[in-house]
């Protein structure tokens, strides 16, 4: 690892060049022939002067500093950093997709329309919901879309409900999305098993409450076993159940939210369906709904044209601007008067949808079912290996992830953050830390199904060595990491005052 890769500007040496073209042998025309004088730059840009090999080495080294699933194990709980098969990238780069323009006439886009339509059908199949929109650009955006749909539904039915109930283990985006829709958020405390407390739910879910927003499996990696009863309590009070399905891994091929009584659900294609993520996107957070919420979905909806050839020909004669589509062709239907409208330009991040579709087709139905089984198996195997060394407060059989508490280690002066940092020295990405909020000194571990038993062993060995070190020489863990390009950045400062340009350093 190159510890101190200088900035490309610091490598600059006057006169050094990458590629020197031969002298121009035709008369040059003044640049103002092409670009108006007032639009020309006043002074030369200060660019680094470097050779080609300097540039290649510089950027190749920088690329190695980025941690990714392609280089090592990435057990970032709740984020499902599973391997993204390269075939997904190949299909997303097919020219027929990359060269499409969103303003192209619909009859020229039938291929992508078919893909999106089919993807919606597969998601319907997997989740048990009745219809999907693929538009939302992330999980949080899916939640916002879902909240807008709930609000539109309640308004349509003349219901004045201003509250959303959310368990205290929820992902932070849940309350944020609800309040963005001007809902008041009420948190309910989980019971000692880490699950929703039915008695409490019954007490707080009153006639002024629009919905319960749950995550199942929840962020402790536990399945809400009373889900049928939970949905009944909410429905009996005239409310709706929203499910945060960002991490659907554990349910794939085993159980369907639609069958549990969930009314509305978002999925994260960029978690469960393997499309890459991190670094802020792009993502895709499709939202699925039951029949009664269908009219409120965002438009346009992708549908199959229903009209017969004769009817179409008749329409075309009347209106020459009508697309020349045949029945069974795909259309974008805007005719939903109760729709919440568009939530994204065009049809969302279709590159992500192509990847997810490829992933689903290449796994096939059987393969998709195995994802659920293996993700649960891997998480339980790892949990079992670690439970002698770390406290696991809700340590029952877990789903796709589990949460360790470093409370015991904290008494020796070693925090969850220290443990996370020490893992970097072993070449692993750290697990999610300090979430969910209800676990003290939390480390949330999600191995995903794509990891081999050998990888799990190496990771477990590292965790066990760290636990031993905390007993014997805690300073090693407290001073980690030692082997990474930078040690411990001031994360708050880095986020609030990012210096992203050479000029920022020069000031
Ligand atoms: C990741 C995640 C989200 C938010 O998804 P984004 O795509 O990051 O907006 C919501 N809920 C849970 C449980 C998540 O893990």
Topology:
Elements: H1 52-65, H2 86-92, H3 95-98, H4 110-127, E1 131-133, H5 139-156, E2 163-167, H6 173-180, E3 184-188, H7 198-204, E4 209-215, H8 227-236, E5 240-245, H9 257-260, E6 264-267, H10 269-272, E7 287-289, E8 301-304, H11 309-318, E9 330-333, H12 350-386, E10 402-405, H13 407-410, H14 416-425, E11 432-433, E12 442-445, H15 453-472, H16 474-478, H17 491-496, H18 502-506
Parallel strand pairs: 2-3, 2-4, 4-5, 5-6
Antiparallel strand pairs: 1-7, 6-7, 8-9, 10-12, 11-12
Helix pairs in contact: 2-12, 4-12, 5-6, 12-15
Pyridoxal-5'-phosphate (PLP) is lined by residues 78-79, 138-140, 171, 173, 215, 219, 244, 246-247, 268, 283, 285.
Description of the structure:
- With 507 residues, the chain is of the alpha/beta class.
- The chain has four domains: 65 residues, no CATH class; 238 residues, 3-Layer(aba) Sandwich (Aspartate Aminotransferase, domain 2), CATH 3.40.640.10; 31 residues, no CATH class; 129 residues, Alpha-Beta Complex (Aspartate Aminotransferase, domain 1), CATH 3.90.1150.
- Helix content is 38%, strand content 10%.
- The protein is built from 18 helices and twelve strands.
- A seven-stranded mixed beta sheet has the order 1-7-6-5-4-2-3, sandwiched between helices. It has a three-stranded antiparallel beta sheet with strand order 10-12-11, with helices on one face.
- Strand 11 and strand 12 form a beta hairpin.
- Helix 2 packs antiparallel against helix 12, helix 4 packs parallel to helix 12 and helix 5 crosses helix 6.
- It is globular, with a radius of gyration of 27 Å.
- The model has no long low-confidence stretch (mean pLDDT 93).
- Pyridoxal-5'-phosphate binds next to helix 5.
């Amino acid at each position: 690892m190159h510890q101190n890769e200088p900035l490309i500007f610091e490598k600059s040496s006057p006169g050094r060049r990458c590629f020197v073209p031969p002298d121009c042998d035709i008369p040059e025309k003044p640049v103002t022939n092409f670009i108006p004088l007032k639009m020309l730059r006043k002074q030369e840009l200060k660019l680094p002067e470097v050779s080609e090999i300097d540039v290649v080495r510089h950027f190749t080294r920088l690329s190695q500093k980025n941690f990714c699933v392609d280089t090592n194990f990435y057990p970032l709980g709740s984020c499902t950093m599973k391997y993204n098969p390269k075939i997904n990238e190949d299909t997303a780069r097919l020219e027929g997709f990359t060269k499409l323009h969103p303003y192209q006439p619909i009859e020229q886009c039938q291929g992508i329309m078919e893909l999106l339509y089919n993807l919606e059908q597969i998601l319907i199949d997997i989740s048990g919901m009745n219809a999907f929109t693929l538009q939302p650009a992330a999980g949080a955006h899916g939640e916002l879309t879902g909240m807008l749909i709930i609000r539109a539904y309640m308004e349509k039915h003349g219901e004045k409900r201003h509250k959303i109930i959310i368990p205290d283990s929820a992902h932070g985006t849940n309350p944020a999305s609800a309040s963005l829709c001007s809902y008041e958020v009420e948190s309910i405390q989980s019971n000692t098993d880490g699950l929703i407390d039915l008695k409490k739910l019954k007490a707080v879910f009153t006639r002024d409450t629009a919905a319960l927003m749950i995550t199942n499996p929840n962020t402790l990696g536990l399945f809400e076993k009373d889900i049928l009863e939970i949905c009944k309590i909410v429905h009996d009070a005239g409310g709706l159940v929203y499910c945060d399905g960002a991490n659907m891994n554990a349910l794939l091929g085993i159980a369907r939210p639609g069958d549990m009584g969930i009314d509305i659900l978002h999925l994260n294609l960029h978690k469960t369906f393997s499309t890459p993520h991190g670094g802020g996107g792009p993502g895709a957070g499709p939202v699925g709904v039951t029949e009664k919420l269908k009219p409120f979905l965002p438009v346009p909806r992708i549908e199959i044209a229903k009209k017969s050839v004769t009817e179409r020909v008749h329409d075309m004669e009347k209106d020459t601007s009508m697309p020349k589509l045949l029945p069974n062709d795909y259309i974008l239907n805007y005719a939903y008067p109760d729709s919440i409208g568009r939530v994204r330009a065009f049809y969302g991040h279709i590159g992500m949808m192509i990847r997810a579709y490829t992933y689903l087709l290449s796994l096939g139905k059987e393969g998709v079912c195995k994802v659920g089984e293996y993700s649960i198996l891997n998480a339980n195997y790892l949990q079992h290996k670690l439970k002698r060394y770390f406290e696991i407060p809700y340590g029952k059989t877990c789903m796709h992830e589990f949460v360790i508490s470093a409370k015991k280690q904290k008494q020796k002066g070693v925090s969850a953050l220290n443990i996370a940092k020490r893992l970097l020295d072993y070449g692993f990405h750290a697990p999610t830390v300090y979430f969910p909020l209800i676990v003290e000194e939390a480390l949330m571990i999600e191995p995903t199904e794509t990891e081999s038993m050998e990888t799990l062993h190496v990771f477990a060995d590292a965790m066990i060595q760290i636990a031993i070190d905390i007993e014997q020489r805690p300073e090693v863990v407290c001073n980690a990491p030692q082997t990474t390009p930078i040690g411990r950045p001031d994360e708050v400062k880095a986020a609030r005052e990012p210096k992203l340009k050479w000029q920022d350093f020069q000031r």
